[in-house]
């Protein structure tokens, strides 16, 4: 399937891309570990089937020095030994925040997140999960494709 529309070719799309890049920059300036940012972004994108975001976050994570094995194992994080307890808490919140139910996220997951992340990091994590889900939805609805992403390209829209 071909993309339905070029999101960045319209005035509104270009403005949104700039705002997304600005929000992304705020998250990367936060104290939330960069590895958590990429793992969370990757996991939400897997759940949502966003090829463009999968392409972007795999390449960005590798460029930041992430172990490719960990990236391959993100979908099965519960059954692996390569993620820290903090990363596991972030991935659990990502899954619950991406696949929302009427009950929202569990108290157990929230307690795990708060055990490992301070207020600043928790705000960044919750915002990141919200932002990546919004980006996934924009790209999936309009059928944007992955495969051609160049590291740092999204930052160029800022």
From TrEMBL:
The UniProt transmembrane annotation reads none
Query: InterPro entries this protein is in?
Result: AhpD-like, AhpD_core, CMD-like
Supply the alphabetized keyword list.
Oxidoreductase, Peroxidase
Q: Which GO terms describe its molecular function?
A: peroxiredoxin activity
Q: Which residues form the Carboxymuconolactone decarboxylase-like domain?
A: 17-96
Which is one Pfam family of this protein? CMD
Indicate yes or no for the key word Protein biosynthesis.
no
Which protein are we looking at? Alkylhydroperoxidase AhpD family core domain-containing protein
């Amino acid at each position: 399937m071909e993309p339905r529309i070029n999101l960045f070719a319209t005035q509104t799309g270009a403005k949104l891309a700039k705002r997304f890049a600005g929000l992304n920059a705020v998250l990367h300036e936060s104290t939330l570990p960069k590895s958590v940012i990429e793992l969370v972004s990757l996991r939400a994108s897997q759940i949502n089937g966003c090829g463009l975001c999968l392409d972007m976050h795999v390449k960005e994570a590798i460029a930041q020095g992430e172990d490719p094995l960990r990236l391959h194992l993100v979908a099965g994080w519960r059954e692996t030994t390569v993620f820290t307890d903090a990363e596991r808490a972030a991935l659990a919140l990502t899954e619950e925040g991406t696949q929302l139910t009427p009950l929202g996220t569990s108290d157990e997951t929230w307690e795990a997140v708060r055990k490992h992340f301070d207020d600043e990091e928790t705000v960044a994590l919750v915002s990141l999960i919200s932002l990546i889900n919004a980006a996934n939805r924009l790209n999936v609805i309009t059928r944007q494709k992955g495969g051609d992403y160049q590291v740092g390209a999204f930052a160029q829209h800022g």
